[in-house]
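Final report, results section. Input specification for complex C-07:
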Amino acid sequence: MEFSELIKTATVEDVLLSRQGLPDVRGTLCITSHHLLLSSRPRGDLELWLLIRNVDAVEKRVCGSSGSITLRCKDLKVLQLEIPGTEECLNVASSIEALSSVDSVMMLYPFFHRPPSLRLRQGWHPCAPERLFQQLAAQTSRWRLSAVNRDFSACPSYPPAVIVPAAVADDTVAKAARFRQGGRFPVLSYFHAKNGTALLRSSQPLPGPKRRRCLEDEQLLGTVVAEGERGVIVDTRSAQAAKQARVSGGGTEPRSCYPRWQRLHRALERGRPLQESFARLVEACGEPAPSVERWLGRLESSRWLGHVKAALSTACLAAQCLDREGCSVLVHGAEGTDTTLLVTALAQLILQPACRTLEGFQALLEREWIQAGHPFQLRCARSAASPARGKREAPVFLLFLDCVWQLSRQFPFSLEFGEQLLLTLFDNAYASAYGTFLCNSEKERRLCRLRERTPSLWARLEQPEEKHKYLNPLYSHNPLPLWPCVQPQGIQLWHGFFLRWIRPCRHLDEAWEEMRRLVQGDKSSLEEGEGKGRAGPSPRLGHGTHAETGTGQGPGVGLG
Amino acid sequence: MEHIRTTKVEQVKLLDRFSTSNKSLTGTLYLTATHLLFIDSSQRETWILHHHIAAVEKLPLTTSGCPLVIQCKNFRIVHFVVPRERDCHDIYNSLLQLSRTAKYEELYAFSYNPKQNESEQVKGWQLIDLAEEYKRMGVPNDYWQLSDANRDYKICETYPRELYVPRTASKPIIVGSSKFRSKGRFPVLSYYHKNKEAAICRCSQPLSGFSARCLEDEHMLQAISKANPSNRYMYVMDTRPKLNAMANRAAGKGYENEDNYSNIRFQFVGIENIHVMRSSLQKLLEVSGTRGLSVNDFLSGLENSGWLRHIKAVLDAAVFLAKAIAVESASVLVHCSDGWDRTSQVCSLGALLLDSYYRTIKGFMVLIEKDWISFGHKFSDRCCQLDGDPKEISPVFTQFLESVWNLTEQFPQAFEYNEAFLLQIHEHVHSCQFGNFLGNCQKEREELKLKEKTYSLWPFLLSEQKKYQNPLYNPDFSPELTLLEPNTVSFNFKFWRNMYHQFDRSMHPRQSVFNLIMNTSEQNKQLEEDIKELEAKIKQRNGRSDVVLVKEQEQTAHPAPVALKSPPCFQKEQPPLPVNDAVRTIEGSNTADNRYSELVSEFSKAEPAVVSLEYGVARMTC
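Structure output:
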């Protein structure tokens, strides 16, 4: 396939662009294989770039001799293009539609993107579990690094190296893998050095309707919890749903076969309902002037904040079992790639101060989301506005980011990074110029040779001029666990994300800047300060520079 | 004292309101003439003023004792369990008596003595001078003058003695107009915008019924409109919903008929009455007080209470008013029914949007003195200072404070004061500890001789103003008379957690940005002063010859501000922000943060060592 086949009209003159909260721009619209480019006329002093992959939905309306296109982006911004000429309008719309839904990973922009300041291969972490194990080895000998998944045969969605109990041999592990959905056998996610408890994750076991058992799986879990100790299995499905899963071959660990493990069910929403919840909330946020009742009603019926509360409380439950009750914890739902990772990653953030630095958080994401096999490509293919409602999309990662944001609100000094990082991560998970969030698993990434062929987002975030945007000026190391308040009164709507393009935030940004200045006691920081970067593009629009924006979506200034 | 049968009960449990695991503190309960005091085993004190008690309830006896629930007007709810039923009964009865006061003279303010001498007391009352304030606004001037019509409260009992009216409004017009207005509250000046030469005026509803007219009243409005040289028409804002205003006509009251008044633009803005507001708050408190609430129950409860809708309505009205003045240069006359509830809300908020002076600490005090206290908002009735008609109680002033809080959230740099200031004012509106808010109008206050017998709140607040300063305040944020334009789209109205859960520590953010910034800027100032002092000393000691040494000294002194990034290094020099009242520590809790709790150890001593853990382990015993 050639991109040129998809581009029916490459340039249109005299296009008017309108955006929320920003002045209109008139100019020439160009469509390239990965970007939509608008350069203002007559002076050409403004160049706006949009990664076409960022387009979630295209709505076209033809009226007389001209037409208008509404682009709903995955990062929730909405762009309106007034295009003279109906044919051009339809052509532009269908070109954008075609380009934004290119199937092949290898055709995506990261494979073509060569930022001058970055080398390929730079910033690609070595295998994350290995790094974790290096730290672990100094603390305990009960765990070992296993190469049982070297060739992805035991579990296609796991990385090649995983951490398993030292007492269990590789062939036992391989057999246990066959008793777990998708081969996702229990592996170590986090070791709580304070009292030697462990956080494990897996997928559901497969007892099925015949209540099959697997001695190897029982043995594997049996060695985690010593005689007289207690383990807790946090099942992220309701007891009812877990029971029903038996019909299709799944199920849970029965108490009789896993005597030291106690099971707790905490139903977390996933899949389609979660995606719909997200879409409903975004729709509610987009309503121009709702009454307070209507707004609260729509906020309620979206149920999003309920999901945030449930995710946080479940993570707290797991963390509390580890830290306070001295129990090891195994987390799983059904597939073990979504809510499971949500819980294990949040629990680590709650317990482990090292995860709360910029670097530590990246390592956490790499380990618990990317290499742990969260299917980013499937889950983040579409955002809230897409008319094509697929079955595989679900904003689990967004839910995680929202929970992290809630933590950052309740513990404003304890995370080294700020809201801007969370926004950037969301943007890049859904449409990126970098390869970091591409594909669904390590196996796929190796096949695509991402490390050799695409630049890494982590490398970009490491660059000093980028990095300072994401740092929290209030940060100071906090060695204690972060126990958040999960009462509804303590859970807030993430305005900075859901209303990012809607609410005017100049005053908030200025206040933030002032706060940064006060805390850092250093006026020079003002000069380099970009605020939260959210307002980043606007002051630079006038210069038409090719500096990349905080959203990292490509050359030039993001359409924002 | 005759109400107190038991002064001390031991082994009383104080339950955590939002704990599902029935966690509690055990301690001793004391009953004094003015306060209820609970001291727990770690010597932490909880003081509750009797006047703050809104309701006491005795729940059915349980195995651990007799539960006693006390609801306070500052939204604190305490849940005690008293071991013996007789003690509980005694305390219950005593509190019922103590929390109900029949006479003003029995209120705390009349016995409260802050150890000031008489001249300090007098000076305290002179701190806010409304005559000075009108001068600041630019009146009297060519168009407006001080009227002595109400000097002896003869025309309107609930207005102050000093009133500003248009120069062209003669005494007969004033008298005539006042007879045509409910409770005699004729149109008077509330705020004068000197740049636009436009005025905010206030009054009560006209007694128009279905067809009555009053020429003097029509003249009065014309005089107001003519007192504004820059605009011919004026707005008349009826802050009530249209239906309510129409219903009032049947009782001989009502609203202005545009046909009878020349050049007025009449506008309803639809703020509900005190009864709707009271029940709305009741619903809000029921929801927020529920244990184990789900997010959806909370949101639907919030929605059903209508509370945020009312706040939005009040703020929308204020924005309308402020825009009429700032954009159209039109004068506005505001009224509701009696002109002391919704009218006070809208006039004061409108002025706050128009004039940055009211966004300073002192200016806010002036604003409250002017539009609320002097114009006769019935604080005594609305806040139930004396045992009276429960139908008169309404959170009108609370709504005003909440509207201001909403503005501070939208404009973090525009206000000199912070949330704690608003909360503290709210606290004292109900505490009856100071004289300012006692009574329903100025006349009543004079009769009570409050200025001799009680103290003013304002000097007390000013003396600890450090606590109330917004560290992000930027006086240049909006030059003197530029309009603050808030966005009143629905999602900007949030539940005010720190008001309604002020005392539920587990709900607050665990770390307070505000404290950190406050401390840091305090230290900055302190260190800068230290540097200056040291430099001065060096100069003194070495004379002018030793310039080199001074420079050296400067070099060693300068790294200090850089080191400010890590405030904990400066623990010793760090004077913790004074929090003298153990009951009211609204600062964010630091329970989970060792270093900061060290830093602010002075006022975090009162905190529980363990955070409540409510994530479900309690139910793990399956």
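Chain B is about 40% helix and 15% strand. The longest helix of chain B spans residues 513-542. This concludes the modelling results for the funded period.
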